[in-house]
Amino acid sequence: MGASSSVPQNSIHEFTVKDCKGKDVDLNIYNGKVLLVVNVASKCGFTNSNYTQLTELYNKYKDKGFEVLAFPCNQFLKQEPGTSEEAQQFACTRFKAEYPIFQKVRVNGPDEAPVYQFLKSSKGGFLGSSIKWNFTKFLIDKEGKVIKRYGSTTTPLAIEADIQKALGEV
């Protein structure tokens, strides 16, 4: 669901995921870019601050090689109840998101997306590797390796210095 069935362990660039309309997207197109991968939800207490700040960071750094990759997820109190296209419409209309909103995925459990298996195996979190809530963020370097993982309560703007460093600005 939402990604290819193999789970390579070298780079996020080796994965293919589905966009919000179900078309394949080879993540190798992001080779050479710094990525922030986020599991998003439209009905979460963190929604407004995260989407607002993700859009702000994206607009500030997109011309410097930065991308946000958003994966809607309905695993936490069913806070992303609509379709993948509805999640994309919500983010683009309400928060002016210009970054990709992919197909809804599961980030934990037997049906979790392979790209999330890779992310979690690269950087475990507090109390183990499972994703605890919406808006868990993974910062990925230009080679597709996970630099750092941030919990839901870490705002996107709190990560800005790490993004600048990954982009080579600091």
Report the major sheet: 4 strands, mixed
Briefly note the structural class of the backbone: alpha+beta
DSSP strand (E) fraction? 15-25%
Termini separation comes to 38 Å
Low-confidence stretches: 1-8
Please indicate the count of domains: 1
Q: What number is the mean pLDDT?
A: 90
Active site: 44
Pfam families: GSHPx
Family: Belongs to the glutathione peroxidase family.
Domain Thioredoxin: 6-168
Structure description:
Residues 6-168 form the Thioredoxin domain. By secondary structure, this protein is of the alpha+beta class. It has one domain: Glutaredoxin. Helices cover 26% and strands 17% of the residues. It contains four helices and six strands. A four-stranded mixed sheet has the order 4-3-5-6. The protein has a two-stranded antiparallel ribbon with strand order 1-2. Strand 3, helix 1 (47-61) and strand 4 (66-72) form a beta-alpha-beta unit.
Detail the topology: elements first, then pairings.
Layout: E1 16-18, E2 24-26, E3 34-40, H1 47-61, E4 66-72, H2 84-95, H3 114-122, E5 137-140, E6 146-150, H4 160-167
Parallel strand pairs: 3-4
Antiparallel strand pairs: 1-2, 3-5, 5-6
Features:
4-stranded mixed sheet, alpha+beta, globular, cytoplasm, 4 helices, two-stranded antiparallel ribbon, 170 residues, Glutaredoxin, peroxidase activity
How would you summarize this macromolecular structure in one to three sentences?
The protein is of the alpha+beta class. It has four helices and six strands, in the order βββαβααββα. Strand 1 and strand 2 form a beta hairpin.
